[in-house]
Amino acid sequence: MDINDEDFGAINEKHQQILVWLEQMYGGESVPQFELNKKTIGILYELMRENQLQDKNCQLVIDDLRQKATEYGVEGQRLSRIVKDMNLSQGCLSQSGLTSLRTLANLALLLDVRDASDTSYLLALQNLSSELTQTAETKTQEERCLAEFTQKSKSALHKYNSLLKTLHHLEEKSVTQRPETEKKRKKVSFLIDKAKQYKGSMQKLQVELARAGADPSLYHQTLVKKSEELQALKQKIAPLKTKLQMYYDLPPDLSQTKVKIEELRLQVSALESELTRRIDLMHL
């Protein structure tokens, strides 16, 4: 037997309960043999518990129906006595009375009343009215939710159609522009390769220039900077020349004017010398 020693006691107890239950189920007949192991005992035990629970529920329903049958029987006897005391019988009732009686009986069955009293009918009808009101409220809420879901579904469908249309448009545009895109891709790849080549060439040329001892002042960037400085000097000299020309127009007999003119002439000469020097450097 595939049973561990540590839980042998619990399995043995379940086994005894299962044997008692199977004997009750087979009603004195011989119980079929089954393999005795932990898995089989577990399955049969769960089946036994489920069966006993169902039997218990069925017994409760049977007891309830028996009680109701007894109550209906007592109520029927009471009504029979009342009808007998009133010298009424089914044969003496009119067709309308029989119809009303059948209607009341069917209504009692439908409402599941305990007796045929007015109170039972009124309470049952009140409960039915409350259920009807609650059902109507639930229906209204469900209709509201359905309307919201319908609106959301329409909105989602509209967005889906719009996205689908956009997707188709992009796919068509992609097919149309594919040659141009491929051409641009190849061009970009070509430019990237060229840039790498130029970068390598520049590095090699810089190494060769450094090895040859080239003067950094002759580099393009240096010359551009000197050209910018030269333009700045020219712009600075222009107003001084204008100012000097104004002093040339002054009367020659003023000593102070001569001193000023001499100062300006010296400044202009210095700037012209600096300008000439820079031009000579650019021509080297």
Task: Summarize this structure as a short list of keywords or feature phrases.
284 residues, mainly alpha
Beta-strand content: under 5%
Main beta-sheet strand count, sense and barrel state: none
Strand and helix order: HHHHHH
Average pLDDT over all residues? 79
Any idea what the radius of gyration is?
Answer: 57 Å
The total of helices stands at 6
Could you give the distance between the termini?
A: 110 Å
How many β-strand stretches?
A: 0
**Residue ranges: pLDDT <50 for 5 or more in a row?**
none
- Helix content bin: over 70%
Q: Which term fits the overall shape?
A: elongated
Structural class: mainly alpha
Explain the overall architecture.
The protein is built from 6 helices and no strands. It is mainly alpha-helical. The longest helix has 95 residues, at 118-212. 0% of the residues are buried.
